[in-house]
Structures are given as C-alpha cells and as structure tokens.
Hints:
The complex is a heterodimer. Chain A is of the alpha+beta class.
Amino acid sequence: MSADGIDAGLEREVAALINREAMLLDRRRWNEWLDLYAEDAVYWAPAWASEEETTTDPETQLNLIYLKNRGRLEDRVFRIESRQSWASLPLDRTVHVIGNVLVESAEGDAIEATANCIVHVYGKKGAATRGSRYDFAFRRIDGALRIARKKITFIDDRLEGPVDIYHL
Amino acid sequence: MSSTAQSRSFRDLVDDRVDEGVFRVDRAVYTDEAVFEAEIERIFEGGWVFLCHESQVEKPGDYWATEIGRQPVYVMRQTDGSLGCYINSCSHRGAVLTPLKQGNVNVLTCRFHGWVYDRGGRCISIKNEELGYAAEERAGGRFDLRRIGALDSYKGFVFGSLRSDVPALRDHLAAAARWIDLLADQARDGLEVVPGCSTYVVHGNWKLQSENSVDGYHVTTLHSVFAATTAQREARDATGGMGRTESGRIRGKVPSGTYDLGNGHMGLWAQHITPHVRPIYEARAWLEDNLKPAEVDWILNRGRNLHVFPNVMLMDNPSTQIRLVKPISPALTEVSVYCIAPRGESPAARAARLRKFEDFYLTAGMATSDDAAALEAVQNGSTGPPSQWNDMTRGLDALVTGPDQGARDLGFEPVASCPDWEHEGMFLGFYRAWLDRLENGTGVA
C-alpha cells in the first residue's frame, strides 16, 4: 500500500493501461485500442465555455467530442480506416507522452485516476504540441481493467487542424 | 501588390461576362496581400459585420469583446437595456479594456494605469488626475471611449460598423433578413447561444469559408464518408428518433437550391427527407398555429445555410449554428462556432441538437474537419500563376433572375435563384458585391 492507501500494484496496473492506450493510438492499432474500452464507455472532451472554465454538462452544453458508448469510438475508427476522410489522409503522426498518473480512488472494481498527456503532432501544416488533462474511470471486467470513462480536458483553444481520437 | 495582381485592378480579378457564358474569379483573390488589405479596410472595417447574439449580452453590464476588422471592440448592455458598442482601447495608452471575452461589470477599469469607464463608455475616473492635468484640461468627455459608427440588431442578431455612413441594417441585410426570420421566428421564447465555443484556424482565405457555406456541390463527395459513418452507426445501434442523421440526404438527390440574397449574402437549402428527426419538430404544432404555412414549411422541411456578408454563417441544417469568420491574413482564417437554440426546448431536443452539432460541425467533428482540409487544399492549389481561374458557371443556364416559387411563397426578393444546390449562380452575387465594395470603398449599397 502507498501512503494514500492505494495498492501499489493497482497503481502500476492503472499506469500501464494509460500508457498502453497511448502506445496503441500512436501506432494506430485501433482494434486493440477499442478493446481497452468497456461497451458502455463514455468518451468526453468538453469545449471551453470561457477562458477559465470548460463546459460541465454534456446534456445542455457544447463539447468537442461526447460519445456515449464504445460503438461511437468504432465510428471514428471506421472513418479513419475508410481513407475517405480528407482530414484523416494523410493521418497526422502523433507521439503521446503520459505523466502524473495518480489513482484517486479505488472502491472495489471501480477505480478513478487522473493523468496528464502531451501529444506531439506532425501533419500537413507542420508540428504542434498539445496538452490534455485526463480524468479516467476504470472498471474490472472479467478480471481485466477496462476504461469506463475518459474525460479529456484539452487545454488548447484556437485549434489548428483536426482533433480526433488519436490527438487526444 | 504581389506580382500576380501587380498591374491589374480589382475588376480584373472577376471576369464577369455572363452574357458570353463566362464567370470566373482569379485565384489571386485568395492569396494577394494587397487584395487582403483592401478587404479589411473596405469590407470588414468599411461596413456592417456581425458582432454577437443578444443572448450573449443579456443583462445590464454584460459585455462581449470581439473585433471589427483589426479593431477590438466590445458590445455592452447598458443599464437602460439598450446596447452600446465601443472601441476596446483605453483612451490613455490604448490597452484593451475587457479582461475576458465575456463578463458582467459596473465599470471597466484599465488594468494598466487605472482609468475607469462606466457602462456608457464615459471616462469617470483618472487615477491622480489632479496631479497630472491642469484644471482646464479636465473638461468632461475628452477621454470618453469612442462609440463605433453604427450599431443595430435584427431579431437578436447584433451587427456593427466602424463607419457611420452605411445603409440601415435592414437595407444591408436585403433578402437575408427573411432567412434570419426563419431562424428567429421558430423559437417561441427566443433563441439563446448555448454555453461552449470552439475556435479553429483554417489555413485558407476567408472567402473559402463563404463559398463553402453555400456550396452544395461538395456534399455528395466530401461528406460521403460522414454519411457512410453515420449510416453504419445507425444500422448497428438501431438508432431511432432524433438520434438519427439524414445520411440519405447527404448521399442522394433531394430538392434543393441556392439564392443570391443581395449585397453579397447567399442562401442554400435542401429538403429534409425525415424532418421528424430534427429537434425543432417537437414545436410543429406551435409553429403551425402561429406562423404562415410557407414559413412552417421552410422551417421544418428545408435545411438552410445562410451567409450574411461578410463574416457570419447562420446554419439550420443538422443542427443550428452561428459560425463567425475572422480573417487573419490572406491564407489564414479564424473561425468560431456556437450552437444557437430555441429557449425552453425539451431536454431531449437540446441534447439531440448538441450531439448533431458535435457529430458534424466541429473541427473535432466528422464533417467540418474534412471541409477545413478541403479548403486548405484549395488554398495550396491556388498559389501558382499557371492555375489562374476558378470557373463559377455551373448551372448558369438554369439561373433564374429574381425569385423562384419558393421565394415567392415565403416572401423574399432574391437577386437570383438557383434551382439546384449544386449550381454556382449565387457566387455571382457574392463576387459582384465583393468587387463593388473593393471598388467603391464603403458599405453603401
């Protein structure tokens, strides 16, 4: 156990899962990436409501992306793999670097964690570096930790180029 | 001017010989620095531009900071409920006064040297004034903020002009006003801008945004992947009701058209094949009881994109959008998008409207991102002198001067009507108005 009562083995397991997701996105191993998500997973990147606050209620406010089950993530992969999306051909190259992983709570099989991510993007218009804060919820399904919720606070505004699942 | 347009006048950039079947625009209009400078001065700083929606400055003291061309300005709801718009620059050293994009204040205090302005732009306090200025210099009004030249609102949509010698807003809007009615009048309790905004930068000229907003010709190619993606999603999820997307409308052929609405404004419409999946459909009974049949038909059954020259698009298609366009340089444009919606619509309709918006419109969405990539490709392909001309004659033979039946039914007077959204006749009006503004230098129609 660590000082905050979180099992060190669980912390390693959570960090490994977040790192694995980043690796799979960068290497475009979409199906393995999708497998990390629970069927009813929520994938949410709020929009900025002002300079200081993001939107907080997806039912009444605008978001960059708000997808309410894994199928909606499959749609994104479908579009990328179709080679028919102009924004996705050529696909931007990405490198995700994960840091500051913290398990915030662990109640039985329900685990919450935060992390930061810097994504270096290289595409048609050159290079950009973007930052995100992650709020994850995980659930243990048949023994394996799966992503039940990924909230991405994408700190960049005035976006250059597309923003898709591999940028976040 | 760059070498491409060096020896030519603005008129040479628009080859307007419609009688001979020719209408083409020199691609230098997207790339030329001198053209861009003239556009900023004579179009954006020389006439009416869209500023904001009244719901964004609802209560006394609410301000909204934006720009007219290069000039920062802010709109302020006055204590008496009226609107004011001021040069957003301290009279002392020029600092922008508003701390945030949007807020509510009793006074604006310059954070540099502490000068204070009331809601009406009057300079009411100068720090240590008596120590720095002789008594006779302290005459009232000398340091008040300047109001912009003209400010007016049409059905909640606020427009401003730096110059005062402009036509009345209603005259500037011409036939576009009737299209604004269609958006405003569908909301029993008025419209509101929904919290949350996305701003993105497109590496393409601002006029590509104008063209794209009413170009139906690209839909079946560029957005076929959006239609395919949503079609497989809806088959998989057995999606019903307002969750459905009209992918068949994107892939297929439906009744459609475009209009030259005068003064550079353009409109595009296409028939909804399943209007009941639209969030507004829940208001059908109220619409039928309160509006004319042609208005109800246009609201419920015709998806519409309106471009109000030069800087805003009002979309009522899969969702409802204000798209604000800000030119940065010939090849760089900043776009900010807002969802606008009827106040008091049901929670289910509001959520569906937002999901449709996020699906399609954002740079994080699955269609607008492809539009942005296409416009950037046009910009990139327009840089070489050997590929000089954009032909815009598609559908010219079918172009109707004045109103068609749909316009007569609703009651508006377009300059010209195109019977198919794949036709390009509305661009004639856009580029003629554009040229007129560049040549005549003001917003005077």
